[in-house]
Amino acid sequence: MELLPRSPGEFGSARYWDRFFRQRGQRPFEWYGAFPELCPVLQKYVRPRDKVLVVGCGNSELSEQMYDVGMCEDIVNIDISDAVIRQMQERSGSKRPKMSYLLMDMLQMDFPDAHFQVVLDKGTLDAVLTDEEEATLAKVDKMFAEISRVLQVGGRYFCVSLAQTHVLKKAVKYFSQEGWVVRVHQVAGSGDKQQFVLPVFVYVMTKFRKIPGSAPQILEICPEEQDKPMRVESVERLVAAVKDRQHYALLCSQLSKTPCGEQVSLDLCDKESGRPRYTLHVVDSPLVKPSRDNHFAIFIIPQGRETEWLFGTEEGRRQLATSAGFGRLVTVALHREQHYEGMAGIQAELSGKVMELAPPGLPARQQVPFLSVGGDIGVRTVRHRDTSPLSGEYVVEDVKGDGTCYFRRLVFLCNRNVVQSEARLLARTPLTGQKKRRKDKKKPNPAEPPAAIDKSYLCCEHHKAMVAGLCLLGGPDPVPALLAVLVVGLGGGSLPLFVHDYFSQARVAVVEIDPSMLEVATRWFGFSQGDRMRVHISDGLDYVAKLAAEGTILQSIPAQYDAIMFDVDSKDLTVGMSCPPPAFVEKPFLQKVKTILKPEGVFVLNLVCRDAQLKESVLATLREVFPLLYARCIEGEVNEILFCQPSPKGRQDPAELGARARALEGALRQPGRPWDSSYVLADMLQAVKIL
């Protein structure tokens, strides 16, 4: 039996609908949204004494069910199909004496002005607005004008729709420009009974008298899981919010049917602010054989640890899912702008939502475990928040790591999953001779992190490798008597601080383009300037070019630096290289770097490049300028540390590098000077390869 129209235009034809309902017979046809799903929305607004008009009623049971449950009785149903009107008159008959069915075209209704408090449209607008042709849009304008005419001020037009973009935009723009309040409700799904994968929406448009001039539009969206509507500032934002919910429904549908080959990421937003509250990654592990108890689990990442390799990379999360032994693991990262009421609060908040991401074959009423590290949600304290004209918004925060260790981090919020700088905090120790606390004194809060910076500890593996690269410096002594070092990129200052403190004769010049970072490093990361440490606020490109020009003009000035270190991030996130900016690895600039480097010196570059072709181009340029090039990959990270030397004569084999590393470490480890026992210089250079 062919019920579908030959063309979208037939949806507006009385002849098509007569044929449709004759062929379908007495069986009710619900386009979408059965009464049990629509009832919670309608109950909020429809009053028993309201006079209700249903346009394009078809043979839906919606009016009958509204009547039967006592929601309202004064209901007039109209349709252009004579066949369905006769059918519905016979079906209702004397059962519902206050409800009527009339043959009428909604584009030209016979009712007087302001006759109804409610107009209800279930799928009719979707059926009429099949395209954006001029004739179609004119018909819709006429439909809206008639609905507006017969509706009282304060009355409501309910439009049940799948909210295709062009349909939603047309309805919202038309009525909001007329001064109406527009609120879009998402209808709760009906589980396995749901006929459509896409969610159903109800546009609730409340009629107000149009105010002359430019009155503000009131546009709101009310997701299915909350009663309180969220205000949005434009039609575009409202359409985007609806699209987000449609994409989420499609995603849940796909995840419920088949395992996901690639990891899926999505944000769940705060109901009040609309800001991201949770970031979820859905990870399927094909290596795990599903059984009744290991289908599905939720893993809460402790606050501040979302950037760690195990939680912040695809491979890490895949490894986590496999080791946890679950077929599907959903990792949940917590956002710094949000407040959380412990693990129990998070579990209560997420339980319903994460079940929508359950894998196929999950047994009914299966208890889904919530996992974490140590059973808690971690500690994160934002110490400082500000905005830099160059770096954008940033935060300084203290987070709890493994055990009792705390770390201070600098994070640029334009790239919130990358820790820009990190330092370990020293544990609090009582002062010498301090008396034991009295029992009635307030005990220190174990969640309160210490304040002093541990300058002996390099948190970043790439910083450890960069310092180890100083082993490549020539000369008989492990530590040169006078060491001149140029560091481009300050961040929190950990790298130049370590070089300054452990190479006691070193003179360190730091170039930083952003004055805000000098303030952050000084106030929050224990950085300070002195006779052997100076910071120059300048663009690294300009600073190096100026030094190179001075050396060219005054040829009596020798090359200045034993070591030059670049640890500078790129602000352009569209390039496949986040460190350094592309201009820092162009050949003319690298030649200037070589000019200010001593012949036996070393240029150390932190390279973070995800674009394989771009990376190969950078390496080729470096080889053109520096005859000797070593590389050290940082395990589990994208970082690769490049050690570049101006002369091939300084080439050292792995055995020589190991010997020099052990000698340098021995010289740096002095009695009374703290040293991180996990930091072994020789290990840092063990994986170095010559390019």
UniProtKB/TrEMBL annotation:
Basic residues compositional bias, start-end: 434-444
Superkingdom classification of source: Eukaryota
CDD domains per UniProt: AdoMet_MTases
Domain Methyltransferase, first and last residues per copy: 50-165
GO molecular function: methyltransferase activity
Protein keywords: Methyltransferase, Multifunctional enzyme, Transferase
Gene Ontology cellular component annotations, sorted alphabetically: cytoplasm
Pfam families attached to this UniProt entry: Methyltransf_31, Spermine_synth
Residues annotated as signal peptide: none
Region (Disordered): 429-450
Any one biological process term the GO annotation gives: methylation
Family, similarity comment: Belongs to the methyltransferase superfamily.
Name under which the protein is recorded: eEF1A lysine and N-terminal methyltransferase
Species name: Spheniscus mendiculus
